[in-house]
C-alpha cells in the first residue's frame, strides 16, 4: 500500500537520489570485476558456444524466465526472505556446480540461476515495500533484466517502469518476457561460454554468478528505489527518473 504521509522534504529527495546514483555506478563496476576474473576476454565469448546452442539461447532463456516466475514466487512461501548475501552465495554455489561438467551441466544449472536471480530481484522489491505477488511488481521484476548486463556499460535508459500497474495483464507480462529474453540470453550466453571447459568452468561459473547476482541486486534496488522515492516524494515518476538520469550522466 502506498504511503499516505506528508511528502518527504526536498533535501531528503536529493539525498536518496544521490544514494541511488552511487548504487547504480557500483553495479556498473561489476563489468570490470568480471573482466578481470575472465582475463579481460569479453568479446567473442558467445562465439565459443556451439552454433546450435547460440541459435537456441533466446528460446531457452525465455523458457527459463517463465519457469522462474512461478518458482521464485513459490519459494517465498517456503524460504523466508534473508539477507542479500544468501542469494549471492546460493547463485555462486550453483554456478560452480554447473561448471564442473562443462557445458552440459551448465545448461542444467541455467534455469536455476535465473530463478535465484529473479528471487533476488523480488527481495529488492520487498525491501522497497512492494508486493512481488502483484502483477505490476512482477512486470517490474522482469523489467530489471532488461538493463544492460554486467559486461556492458548501462546508461540508465532501461531504469524506467511501466506507466500504470492497473493495465498489467498476463499477456502484457508474456510480451515483456519475450522482449527481455534475447537481451538476457546474450548475458547468460557469455556465462555459459565461460563455463564450457569442465572443472575450469566451475571457477568461471562461480565467478560469473557471483558478479551477475550482485549486479542485478544493485539494479533492482535502483529500480524499485526510484519507484518508492516517487511515491514518498509525491512526484511524477518520470520527473524523478529524469533527474536521476541527469545525475547519472554527470561526473563521477
Structural class: mainly alpha
Number of E strands: 0
* Separate helix tally: 8
Low-confidence stretches: 160-166
CA-to-CA gap between the ends? 35 Å
Question: Any overview of this molecule?
Answer:
By secondary structure, this protein is mainly alpha-helical. The longest helix has 34 residues, at 200-233. Helix content is 70%, strand content 0%. The protein is built from eight helices and no strands. The chain has one domain (10-249). The two termini are 35 Å apart. Mean pLDDT is 83; it is low at 160-166.
In terms of topology, how is this protein built?
Elements: H1 10-37, H2 51-75, H3 84-100, H4 103-127, H5 135-144, H6 170-194, H7 200-233, H8 237-249
Helix pairs in contact: 1-7, 1-8, 2-4, 2-6, 3-4, 3-7, 4-5, 4-7, 5-6, 7-8
List keywords for this structure.
252 residues; mainly alpha; 8 helices; globular
